[in-house]
Amino acid sequence: MEWADYMVMAANHSRNSARHWFRYLRKYIDRCGTLFSKQDVEYLSCNESLTPFQRVSIRAAFKEGSATRRHIISLNQRIVPSKLLLVRSKYETHCESK
Questions:
Q1: What is the pTM of this model?
Q2: Distance of CA 50 to CAs 9, 73, 89, 97, Å?
Q3: How far apart are CA 38 and CA 24, in angstroms?
Q4: Strands in 1-93 per DSSP E
């Protein structure tokens, strides 16, 4: 199965969840590059099986320097323990105040 065909299947599987869709995309995009060719991106961005959101996000994900691409790359990075502790402390304070 080619990458583009796999992504069409993934698009159908994650149709109602942007988070799930970005998880599929992060498998193929990292700081070093992508597994998709420009022809694959064009095919996917015009494919009617994808929702309008998915088609737009495909184009943005493969555009160097876009916010979508930065977000997907950040999904592949390790969590810094200090940031995790900060989020945890905010969550705990929020839950205790209820």
A1: 0.68
A2: 9, 22, 39, 42
A3: 18
A4: 29-30, 33-34
Output the tens digit of pLDDT for each of the chain's 98 residues: 477 888 899 999 898 888 889 888 888 776 656 667 788 888 888 889 999 999 999 889 888 888 888 888 888 777 666 766 776 676 666 555 55
30 touches 36 (CB < 8 A): no
CB 4 within 8 A of CB 43: yes
Tokens of 89: 């402390």
The tally of domains found in the chain comes to: 1
Rounded distance, CA 35 to CA 13, Å? 20
Domain of residue 59 covers 3-96
